[in-house]
Amino acid sequence: MFPLNDTEPNRYIRFPYMVVTIIIINMIVMGVEFAYIYRGEYAFIDFIYRFGAVPTAILAQQGGGGLSAITQMFLHAGLVHLFGNMLGLWVYGRRVEDACGPWRFLIFYLTSGVFAEMVYTLARAQSDIAGIGASGAIYGVMGAYLILYPGGRIRTFILLGVVPLFPKIRAFWLILYFFALQILPAFNTLLTQERYQVAHWAHLGGFIGSLCIFFFLRPEVFHRYRNEMSL
Amino acid sequence: MLLALVETEPEHELAWLWLSELMPDLENRIIALENALAINPHRQKAQQRLAQLRQQQEALVPQRVVTANTYAENGRRQQAYALLQQQLQKQPDDADAWFAFSQLVEDVDDQIAALHYAVMLKPTHNQAQQRLTQLLLAHEDLIGLGRAYEALGDLDNAIPAYQLAVKQSTTPTIDQTIAKKRLEAAKRYRKLYHQQQRKGLTFPELTTNQSLATGRAYEEKGEWEAAIIAYKTAVATATATAEQKIAQKRLHTTQKQQQLPNVKLTSPTLTLVRLGLGPFLLFIFLVLLHAGLNPLHISPWLALSSLSVLAGSLLLVLAMIIPHHNLAQKLLGESERPDFLTRILLNVLGNLLIALPFLLLIFNAIDRLSVYTPVIPIP
């Protein structure tokens, strides 16, 4: 199941400049990663561990610390990882940026990503594996979308056996589905210390971090939200 | 002749008294009497006559609006503005006050908004309607123009306005979507109106679909009570579940809309605090991570610089909006936004105060990275 596009139009800005800028930056960083891969496996892993977020290093106050929480948001483990995250950012970020304005959206994106990293570090305090990827921040954007536009309709790609379907699904159900997918593995990690390739706790942290969207909304959007008017 | 006389001799009491009886409209008669009494305040008959005229005027329109108009005509715009603000706070549904207000404000968008209110509250207010149409045409706000015609029930003029609005927007924006939706709705209402006229239908005899359309038409005009009756009719007459659901949903929305005068206002102070805390929150999270999630390990410099981020972000919001606070209004003026130069100054200072702590954090992180050797786990 892939969300493809938000079918509702923007209200304030015609084009999501910041969303596109973030996507381009992520793509450029992916290019840099390829350059490191070309230089050799050790150079690439060293690069990832230097700029990714390693919970044990963060707790020991080693490495980039706060900065690594931001740099890890722009690193990805491969093209599929990058594509999945950027698709999510495009689908949910467009209207969230519209509700905040580009600069406030950027700060919200970083804040929810950093908060996701905090939760991940706390939940996986013993882990010495570098956490990378924008998914924490993107789950934050998804949470903000759920708060602001629960009735928004998302064009989704579903493969039913061999039949491709493209229904428009209410954001409420779609985002809750993605949220529910995180819960079991997250608690399983906590209880059994089993290692997953996906940072479920960062996703849950991003969701919780999305509550700070209220600090970034345009005054008019906030006013409309308080008065239960349509956004 | 009398007018020429008072122009050359403004202290001519008798001329003002004559004018107070000869002027065609009530407002000017009152002004003439006031001027006469200003020259000789002891003339009892004039005082009685003035009281009489004012009573007549009160029966027509609220006194504040008239006085405000008088002030405005005499060039005392600030007094007129204050008086109208008082009137609108007391009676927000006073269409005449909104119309008078639209003539006082300088910003075209504010004028349009005030005129919209006036027309919405009193669709028969021809002066307001004419002025609104002129402004919207000059402003090329075709959707607004269509809505204004629609509010008057003039669908024949509303439809071309929407058609033009659809043609003008070349990219699929919210404006185009709104224009398309309004165009479809206006066409539907016109068709329904003609059908009703032909069949001589009365309101309770409408079918479910017609009740829904009538409800929507009333909703668009802001006549919530009539819309609610129409939707209730639709709920009662609906045979299909889908129709009933639609009618119930519209009924619920309209009932909520009816309660909108109880709208919660967002104060500029709340906006200031709310937006000011955003960047501060990001910095605090970063500093916490930098200190290994142990608040006791936060360096004093970073703790202090978080206050700089807070101050900077508050200044950036102040460049946008002035809170209703004596100190802020003393420093930045009483309008809604600071002037251009102050805005630039606040923006530069705000950005500087935010950027410096982030730079401090980045330099500190780079310093730590330069001595860091990553421990790569062996798979």
Description:
The complex is a heterodimer of chains A (231) and B (379). With 231 residues, chain A is an alpha+beta fold. Chain A has one domain (2-226): Rhomboid-like fold (Up-down Bundle). Chain A has ten helices and four strands. In chain A, strands 1, 2, 3 and 4 form a four-stranded antiparallel β-sheet that branches. In chain A, helix 5 (79-100) packs parallel to helix 7 (135-148). By secondary structure, chain B is mainly α. Among the domains of chain B are: 212-256, no CATH class; 268-365, no CATH class. Chain B is built from 19 helices and no strands. In chain B, helix 3 runs antiparallel to helix 4, helix 5 (63-73) runs parallel beside helix 7 and helix 12 (174-199) crosses helix 13. The longest helix of chain B has 31 residues, at 340-370. Chain B is flat. The chains are: A alpha+beta (231), B mainly alpha (379).
Q: pLDDT below 50 for ≥5 consecutive residues: which ranges of chain A?
A: none
Q: Tell me, what's the shape of chain A?
A: globular
Which percent band covers the strand fraction of chain A?
5-15%
End-to-end Cα distance of chain B, whole Å, is: 106 Å
Strand content of chain B: under 5%
CATH superfamily grouping of chain A: Rhomboid-like
Number of extended strands of chain B: 0
User: What kind of sheet is the major sheet of chain A?
Assistant: 4 strands, antiparallel
DSSP summary, beta strand count of chain A: 4
Number of helices of chain A: 10
Rg of chain B over CA atoms, rounded to whole Å, is 31 Å
> Helix tally of chain B?
19
Order of helices and strands of chain B: HHHHHHHHHHHHHHHHHHH
**Major beta sheet of chain B, specifics?**
none
* Interface with most residues: A-B, 49 and 43 residues
Give the termini separation of chain A: 27 Å
Low-confidence stretches of chain B: 199-204
* Helix residue percentage of chain B: over 70%
